[in-house]
Amino acid sequence: MKHLDLFRRFGLRTTIAPSLQGVGPSRPGWFRALPLAASFILLTAPLRGEFAYVANVKSNTVSAYSVGSNGALTPVPGSPFATGHDPMSVTVVPTGWFAYVVNINDSTISAFSIGSNGALTPVPGSPLATGITPDSVTVDPSGSFVYIANLGQPFANGSVSAFTIGSNGALTSVSGSPFPAGPGSVSVAVSPTGFAYVVNSSNGNVSAYSIGSNGALTPVSGSPLRSGCNWRDRCRARGKAFLTEMHFCF
Question: What's the predicted TM-score (pTM) here?
Answer without folding.
Answer: 0.77
